[in-house]
Specification:
The radius of gyration is 22 Å and the shape is globular. 45% of the residues lie in helices and 16% in strands. It is built from 15 helices and 13 strands. It folds into two domains: 1-201 and 211-225, P-loop containing nucleotide triphosphate hydrolases (Rossmann fold); 227-331, Magnesium chelatase subunit I, C-Terminal domain (Helicase, Ruva Protein, domain 3). It has helices spanning 4-26, 34-46, 60-70, 87-90, 127-130, 132-139, 174-177, 191-200, 214-225, 231-242, 253-258, 265-281, 289-300, 308-312, 317-327; strands spanning 50-53, 71-72, 75-79, 91-97, 103-109, 116-120, 141-144, 147-150, 156-161, 182-185, 212-213, 259-261, 305-306.
Length: 337
Amino acid sequence: MADKKPDFDEFLEKFRKHRELMMEELHKVIVGQESVIEQILAAIFTGGHCLLVGVPGLAKTLTVSTIAQILDVQFKRIQFTPDLMPSDITGTNVLDENDTGRREFRFVEGPVFTNILLADEINRTPPKTQAALLQSMQEHEVTVGQTTYKLPEPFFVIATQNPIEQEGTYPLPEAQLDRFMFNVKVDYPNLAEEEKILSASSGERQEVRKVLSAKAILYLQKQISSIETGPLTINYVARLVRATRPGDPSSPKFVRDMVDWGAGPRAGQFLIAGGKAMAAMDGRPSVSMQDIRKVAIPVLRHRLSTNFQAQAEGMTSETVIARLLDEVPEPKIPKYV
């Protein structure tokens, strides 16, 4: 392990520079949104999926398409509508006649056969079509008829959702929400950022350079997965996730009073994966508890459900998580004499 450390330190330094270059290219087009970009990149570097939630006009689609431009990968976009069918996503078998006059089925790939799939306004399509993404997100494969087809690697789904418009929409079922590593809140820009956006809107859009290939992303994912997570950090993650469950003896009273159900084990896995990405982007070889705290809200906000009492008191899932981060103590590092 000691022989590998210099090589791994060199990898972390190169990765940190790559990340800085990516941010530099993205900011040629995207103004602000630092945390949004950071969370999307963290998901990409760990093989996760993202759900971007924000009102129209906050450049959610532009952010995703620009990230796809700086990565030398395939990118496809699906505009979700009420009449979209599952086969419009996965593909379908069509009957063809070959040169000998014999008829046979041929599979025509859908837009899910790509590296980055932008599912725009995913809550505008019925659950049957939303579910067409479930297998691809979890297993990276699609089954049509009796045949299963592997999706290209790497594969990410980045979905967008408008939180304020409810008419004609279909809320994502909990099973599908849980497939998303991060629920990324896209907020309004501050005054300086808005002035910069308005100034740039009349000029020409700048071109961005490609920074990473598909092969490089797969290599980064493999290396980042080997970043160390110590026993104390794992203990902290486990206690934090268990504290979100109202039926768990360790959960605080306010969770038992205000939460209907909490996060499952997948949340802990994503907390650790997100922590590894944050550590790598900062050039560190191990996950700190601060890394876990940094990704806690985007990982957990869509994995626990507040009840009527919480809503009456103005408590959201975010405020519950923020309070948990204050109340669940970090393990103390033992002192050795």
